[in-house]
Amino acid sequence: MAEFWAAVVAFYTGTFGVPVRVLTIIVVASLVRLVLQLVIRRVVNRVISGVKKRQNVEDTAALQASPVAAMRIVQRTRAFGGVLSSTVTTVVVLVSLVLIVSAIDPNATGAFSLITAALGAGLGFGAQNVVRDVLNGLFIVTEDQLGVGDVVDLGQATGVVEAVGIRVTTVRDVNGTLWYVRNGEILRVGNMSQGWARVILDLAIPYDADIDAVKERMLQTGIEMRSDGKWKRLMMEQPEIWGIESISADAIVLRLVVKTRTGAKDDVARELRARVKRTLDAMGIRVPALGVAAGGAAKVGGSDDTPVIPGVVKPQATPRPPTTGGKK
């Protein structure tokens, strides 16, 4: 046995010792990275599978109708797993490089210290943005500001979060464009997937219309929609009439609101508009002309909806997490 280990030592210190040591370091580093990545992936999958099992669903998209905490666990776990995987890769690569340099030239330790000091000084100036990106990315994930699958407004881009890396967060907008946003440049996060959302429907009606009758029928239309089994699980509360939002010479703007689940806001809004339109037709009410009503409604603040007026071009819909083809 002693002869065997003596032969191994002689092999590593012989003519081909340096290449062999370098190769060994690379192989070991690759195996360590692979094992850690598998562990991280396994833990993430087990957490997600546990949440799905408790909620009795098979697809993550089905969690939209489940308690908010379950969806947040899945999204946060995926985001944290992505950041942790990137961190592991970075650490393994850096440690491997140090070991390879030491294997090539054992006397390079002193020189390497000087190089490290120089690199540290360089990080303080040239690479400070990279350090800021990394630190900000860690804070974003640990504070649960966003997660994979969230619909967010980052200022630079608005869309569905597809990945959260150690330096960059990728967001897919409603047009399908994939945006790469540096974590250090994210100064604010508007998360539209946490808690609940609200549909705000502003309706412009003629000035001489019976306001009380219209308000009653609008509210009744919303309540009837919520009693429908298809929409009941998506509308968290009964619709409310907030009253008159603005008045002009020819139009009065009424506001109807309803609290919904985050992933169902646009679907509920579209269906509610269609039902309100049919209600107005049944009442024989014609909305004012575009120019007249829009002038009064333009003063309405805080609404994500324009008055229900024929010919109005609606703004782009809020992007939603994909319901098919996504992560299971």
From TrEMBL:
InterPro entries: LSM_dom_sf, MS_channel_C, MscS_beta-dom_sf, MscS_channel_2nd, MscS_channel_C_sf, YbiO_bact. It is a multi-pass membrane protein. GO terms for cellular component: plasma membrane. This is Mechanosensitive ion channel protein MscS. Coiled coil: none annotated. Residues 129-193 form the Mechanosensitive ion channel MscS domain. Belongs to the MscS (TC 1.A.23) family. The chain crosses the membrane at residues 20-44, 79-104, 110-131. GO terms for molecular function: mechanosensitive monoatomic ion channel activity. The lineage of its organism: Bacteria, Bacillati, Actinomycetota, Actinomycetes, Micrococcales. Residues 202-286 form the Mechanosensitive ion channel MscS C-terminal domain.
